[in-house]
Design a protein that fits this description.
Elements lengths: L1 H5 L3 H79 L2 E10 L7 E4 L12 E3 L4 E8 L4 E5 L6 E6 L5 E6 L6 E3 L13 E4 L11 E9 L8 E6 L8 E6 L48
Antiparallel strand pairs: 1-2, 1-12, 2-5, 3-4, 3-12, 4-5, 6-7, 6-9, 7-8, 8-11, 9-10, 10-11
């Protein structure tokens, strides 16, 4: 009671506490050390995990950036393809290349559209720049395309400048066509643009094909040696256009309309003139007399 009231032992307790502090510190040291080690280890593991996550995130972002550049380039290609589809004017469908034939003697590619999409054998194929080739085999979900540079491919073309018609034949090289049937006096010069002529019924007229790069005329040869470079990016294009076009297609005849000898069929296309009617269609106003 006296100590509580007069604090006679306060200094003694302070002195004893000062003397025993090292003992308390040493007694708590193992716990403090273990706690520090635990926190340090936890902090180091956390930093390592965060560092690993940041590395992974950085790698993903770099990969996405690369993909972005690829998507940007693809978007530009598709934009060019869409622009060319408006110029075509026919019904078109975009397809992608699935694989390229590794046979050096074949110029063929595989696309990811087939008969399920309406693709048919002989169908023209374009890229954003010019004619690429035509379909030669069809499955439900893929098609094989023969490029115009294949040695077995021949395409009717004409010189855009003057309408001179000839045949462009593949040479087996991805960057070269030849025109083997031009006489030496033909009006063709280097730089002339070749377009489809529409003859043969496979390709509609007017599509760019190639540009003349070399002309050799020998006085002793009946034909000139003419080479041309395809306008299509045959070794680079990833997206292509499938074209639907029906040459000489006639519009449907209105109901209750009949043509007579005095009424010329004004709606018939000029290219269809002289085309005989199908053999299974009976001739108009024809009466067969018995016994004739």
């Amino acid at each position: 009671v006296l100590d509580h009231r007069f604090h006679h032992l306060e200094q003694l307790r302070s002195a004893l506490a000062f003397l025993t502090y090292p003992l308390h510190y040493l007694a708590d040291l193992p716990f403090t050390a273990s706690h520090w080690v635990s926190e340090s280890t936890s902090t180091r593991e956390t930093l390592l995990e965060q560092n690993s996550e940041l590395k992974d995130q950085n790698l993903r972002l770099r990969a996405e950036l690369q993909k972005y550049e690829s998507l940007k380039a693809e978007n530009m290609r598709l934009r060019d393809l869409v622009d060319s589809s408006f110029k075509v004017g026919d019904r078109v469908l975009v397809a992608e290349l699935s694989s390229v034939d590794l046979d050096p003697y074949k110029q063929q590619v595989l696309i990811n559209k087939g008969s399920a999409s309406g693709v048919f054998v002989g169908q023209p194929i374009l890229d954003a720049h010019a004619v690429m080739g035509q379909v030669i085999a069809v499955t439900p979900f893929s098609s094989t395309v023969l490029l115009i540079t294949d040695t077995s491919h021949a395409l009717p073309v004409q010189v855009l400048r003057n309408g001179l018609r000839t045949i462009a034949v593949g040479t087996g090289r991805i960057d070269e066509l030849k025109l083997p049937y031009l006489p030496t006096n033909s009006d063709i010069v280097e730089g002339d643009l070749l377009v489809t002529s529409g003859l043969g019924g496979k390709f509609p007229p007017g599509y760019p094909v190639a540009r003349v790069t070399r002309i050799d005329r020998s006085p002793d040869a009946p034909f000139s040696d003419v080479l041309a470079q395809p306008r299509a990016h045959l070794d680079r294009s990833r997206e292509v256009l499938l074209v639907w076009t029906v040459p000489n297609q006639l519009p449907e005849r209105p109901p209750q309309t009949r043509l007579t000898d005095d009424t010329p069929p004004s709606n018939v296309d000029a290219d269809a003139a002289g085309t005989p009617p199908p053999q299974d269609a009976p001739a108009a106003d024809t009466t067969v007399e018995p016994g004739t």
